[in-house]
Amino acid sequence: MKPEIDEQRRRLTLAGLAAYPLVKSNAFASSGERSASPSRVVEFDAQVSRDGQRSVTAPINIDVSKTVIIVCDMQNDFGAKGGMFDRAGIDISMIQAAVGPTAKVLASARHAGVKIIYLKMGFRPDLSDLGAADSVNRVRHLEGFKVGESVRAPDGRESRILIRDNWGTDIVPELKPMADDVVIYKHRFSGFYQTELDATLKTLGAKHLVFTGCTTSVCVESTIRDAMFRDYLPVLLADCTGEPVGHSFPRSNHEASLLVIKTLLGWVSGSDQFITALSA
User: Fold this and answer.
1) Is 73 a known active-site residue?
2) Which H, E and C letters describe 56-77, residue by residue?
3) Active site residue 72
4) Which of 12, 100, 166, 169 is most buried (most C-beta within 10 Å)?
5) Could you confirm whether 219 is annotated as catalytic?
């Protein structure tokens, strides 16, 4: 190993940031996975906390060929006027603010050949996947958000709140999936729960998951937790996510999630740092 790489590993290990072996290797080995592509290691700054109080900024390295961008729930029902959140009187400004940076990340990722997976929260028309009659998931969604009710979408279409293949579960227009992207429906906060996400990531040979989407402390954090439990290496781009819950508090739920993620679950960075590294 070259001296400069050995020194870099020493620094990263001391910071708790050695994300993966710095020796390059082929990304996809088995015949059932995506055809092998050359490894390319990029470095960018991210935040980590060793004590849950103070954050340090240090470089992390990811192999682009083993990286997947996760776009979590950036759909009309959460991030558009006339959607479920907006109808419920919830401030969606912080979700809308994440759209621009996320669009730039996706454009950069596509240019670099990085795979993109969209997660969409949506229930079956018969609500059979909403949960048992007394389950928290069913009760809170029905009582608080009127899931399943018919509404007129802003574009004039008949739609049903948070039901698959309706206006509300369409991705916001600025982040519309492309033909090569993967789109996965989920019916709980975590994108891993009873979905094909884990199998898809394994087929792609993924190791590094770069997260964007909403909401920070619910679906995004839930999916990051499950990713970490499965030994993926999650990086959240803080300006590409937003959280209405606790938004007006002196310290918001969004900030609390960032602290938990960089302390115990992964790393926190920003769109500019990631794009710059990917474009180098």
Assistant:
1) yes
2) EEEEEEEEHHHEEEEEECCEHH
3) no
4) 169
5) yes
